[in-house]
Amino acid sequence: MPPRTIRGMLKNKLVLVGILSLFLSFIFLFLFSNFFLFALFLIIFIILLVYNFIKVSRKLYDALGTRLMLLATVSVIFLFFLLLLILINGSINILSDQSLSDLIFSSTWKPFSGKFGLFAVIVDTLIVTAISMVIAVPISLLSAIYIAEYAPKKFRNIVRPFIDVLAGVPSVVFGLCALLVFVPLVRDDIAPFFGSNISSGFSLFTASLILSIMVFPIIISLCLESFNSVPIALKEASLSLGATKWETVKKVIFRAAGPGVLAAIFLGFGRAFGETIAVSMVIGNQELIPKSLFGPGQTLASLIASNYTEVSSIPILASALIFVALILFVVVLIFNLLGYFVLQRASKRWKY
Amino acid sequence: MNRRNLEEKIFLGLMLASVFIVMGSLILIVTVIVLNGAPSLSIEILTQTSEGGFYLGAGGGFLNAIVGSLLLALPATGLAFLIGIAIALYLQKDFLKPGIANFIRICLDILWGVPSVVYGVFCLTIMIAIGMTGGSLLFGIIALTLLEIPIITRSIDESIKMVPSGLKESAYSLGSSKFETAAKVVRRQAMPGIIAGVLLGFGRGIGDAASILLTVGDSNYFPSSISDQTAALPTMILNLVSMPDQVVQNKAYAVAFVLLMIVLLISIITRYLTKKSSKYIIK
Predict the structure, then answer these.
(1) Residue of A65, A72, A220 with shortest CB distance to B22
(2) What is the value of ipTM here, to two decimals?
(3) Contact predicate B247/B76, CB 8 Å
(4) Which CATH number fits the domain B41-280, given the four candidates 1.10.10.250, 3.90.550.10, 1.10.3720.10, 3.100.10.10?
């Protein structure tokens, strides 16, 4: 409860600050004639006055606070639809200029001659995402199981924070490493090994490699969380029936933690699908239907990063890029909803 | 019996191999940056702006990028925190019906999954619509705020879910209102989660390149007002890498090293603060 007596009010620091700022505002007005500072301190005083007034009445304080929280909540829903609306509104230009099937099924992307075919880019995006997930999912699941179930406690205590830190490493850092390590590796070793000798190293495969490494920490840390929440009695029951450790993992832990693992894979997919900077640094940035995995390409996200500089010289390009962003948004939307419904069904069926 | 043991052995081998691959590749990333970045660091490069031909191989440093990144990420994190904690507190079942709250959670999860480049395009669209070219600090802050709101909100929300309902009930029974309970009791109890969420958001904000790339432009000086263009660490790495000169390209590793150290520092601070603030929590 706010104090009501004068002595009590003086003990309140905010009241002191308020009186001080009123005092200062008069000093600035009369001694220095500085109107800006006068106004500033007067505003501080008024804000504090209003705040104290509101604080005195609990009902008002309560109502105001609740309304502010409601406002924030409503505004985030509003933001969600505003995002969708602005992206749709921005891509109307390109959609009225060219038909949707032209945009999606033609593969010539030449902004300077007004051609905005996205087919090649979409194919590249699917290839890169698919390869990176094929590499990342089994490896991260197996290592998550090892860390959660097999590893000695010491090892676990070192590895978990390490993985958490790496989940937060910026993508541009990953991209830089890929540039230094994976591009020469693909150019000199991997591509010749698979019989394509003219690869520059900037290729779809390089992008998939770095994406799979970026996805590791995400999938692993989420999987660890859901493995750890499996009740220990379930594991003990399985082990006491004579199952080996791996059989317990396969038949008990995977089922009990199934929804969490699925969610982790969906999240990893989203990250790989929308990753922009690391991909655009190593993919070669050419809008071609790939002839081999070791040739250059372009994903939807990296297309935006490598084309946005010309937006001011070609107005319709802006609209095309907004359309690409809309595709990204809608795909993420669909995948999230899909993931949500799969999870709902799975957690009903796999309840323990 | 033999087949089962064989299967066990095979899968244990596969697991060890994949742990080796994961740890190896992640350690490789960190070592590459540290080994290449640390030698090019100097006091000079950390304390000067890049006005004297930093991109051309002459002297100068990237202090303007460090300051720019902080000027982008700090206000964005502050704004996202204010909005995020309000939403997270309101999502409790004391205020909203669980059905509506879950709908909002799905929206937030979708927003979390949206690639950051989409937020960049969103701000770019608004910038084009109001006729602004080249970018500004303000739109960078807006893009980062949008990026961080779902992250911070969902992290705080998860920790608020853990607050025991007995605690809330005892606050109610002492006569405090819903808002007072949320703002005083629940907030204190969820403090470790709030700290972790805010620092997670800050780490994502300071390291994100795609949204910044489209919105802040570039500059060799400190930004003097909110409508100025500014440099930032992630965009500076991209600029340096695209330069033809090998010596200039190597400076990118120094910038990346600083960025990596900032991220590392944030995670150490998170661990320290969460440990410290969870001391007084009622279990």
Answers:
(1) A220
(2) 0.88
(3) no
(4) 1.10.3720.10
